[in-house]
Amino acid sequence: MPDPLSPSDAAPLVELRQVSLAYGSGTGRMLALEDATLSIAKGEFIAVVGPSGCGKSTLMKLVTGLLPPTSGEIRVHGAPVKGPIRGVGMAFQAPTLMPWRTTRDNILLPLEVVEPHKRRFRANKAEYVAKVEALLASVGLGGFGDKYPWQLSGGMQQRSSLCRALVHEPEILMLDEPFGALDAFTREELWGVMQKLWLERRFTAVLVTHDLREAVYLADTVYVMSRRPGRIVKLRRIELPRPRTLETTFEIEFVDIVHELRERIHLEHA
Amino acid sequence: MSDTQRRLLLIAMPWLAMATLLILWELACIVFQVPEILAPKPTRIFEVMVLRWDILLKFCMETFVTTAIGFVLAIGFGLLLGLAVGASPFIYSGLYPLLIAFNAVPKVALVPILMIWLGVGALPAVITAFVISFFPIVVNVATGLATIEPEMRDVMRSLGASQWEILTKVGVPRAMPYLFASLKVAVTLAFIGSVISETVGGNRGIGFLMLSAGARNDSATTFAGLFSIAIMGVLMYAACALVERRMTRWAFRGEIVT
Predict the structure, then answer these.
(1) CATH of A1-87+221-270 among 3.30.70, 3.30.460, 3.40.50, 2.30.31
(2) By CB count within 10 A, which of A64, B12, B25, B200 is most buried?
(3) Where is the ABC transporter domain (chain A) (predicted)?
(4) pTM to 2 decimal places
């Protein structure tokens, strides 16, 4: 079994080769992503940072097959991606929970849709509910399953959203600025929650963020993107030991890496 | 003013406003000596309503049944069409202009045609109630579907959900508050539709009662019919509003619903 902490040694789970994506056509054509090449190993946690509007979210949609690339090739498990791939969990800046479902029923949603759970759902509901309760407890939301999302705080909604993204044990987790709308304290607390979940389950994660400290705290590899049209201009491996804590973020090595990334992004604004 | 007084006053306000209006009406009739054939006093109208309650109730029930049938048809048909229009851009672009053109036709103009086709009776009233009330339902349901958050769709698609699953798990529940909001409007319209049909040409219902009482210069009975219509309208609206609150508690974020 490959060591997830040294992803470069493992066979890539996700591969992008010279992928470009343009929205629209004719004069309205806008190149959002240009010539992106990257590979993500199984169990690796990567972060994509860059100025706003640089195509970070586009990259995420490409990897999950929600958008077809204009040119280039995307492979998952060695097979070209042709449509939305299975076994993905997603969390966005907005929690996108369904207000008509309780928190528990929201988190059960992927199990109602994704095979093989879908087939077993009715017969094994009690088992799945227990699973959701355990997951809720692990993110500090034990006993909140009966509440509706709108009865929870922003941070609690975002935790629920993470639970929903993980409940069907996806191989790949896509995080599109999931902590972006939260206050600084809640955000830093959720970094810890996220890292704990990753250390326990070792899924492959793609985090899109504009918070450099968040990227360095969570990721094994950080990709820096240029201004639109987005290109990958820097790859930085983060070899800080895990579990990282808030204390880590004040250590000199951590600060140096953040500084280095900041300078590279600063070039984009110059 | 204490909180309790405030709350009581809020509840009492509609009744106070209505009582004020009726008292002003009564006083105006007395002061200006308005002949009964022009505008009967409210007390006289209520007297007639009490005296002839059996007839009024019978005609009201006829109107209620035609309205209810037309309304239920409108819900069923409006829901299906609204889901289709909201779910498919092709159906939307194909049908929407037609729907708008159809809605622009004054429905009272349809009644004579319906009479030619179907004769006099309950059926033209049912159909008028139906055609006049299905439009807001279609538009609202379609709007509810069309405004699904793109992220919600992405979540479902990335889970490998089919279009059908997205429709049933996200679209339909999300369209429900829109549906129930439209029902309040639609039920009033359905009611207007059946009364119009009864008034233009019919042999049953409260509209017909008012028409024939008016022909006999029996203003008091005509006004009693009008009051009955108003009361029925409010009751139907209230029933729909209650159903709305019960069914879509989440859309009200749980406020004061027990």
Answers:
(1) 3.40.50
(2) A64
(3) 16-252
(4) 0.77
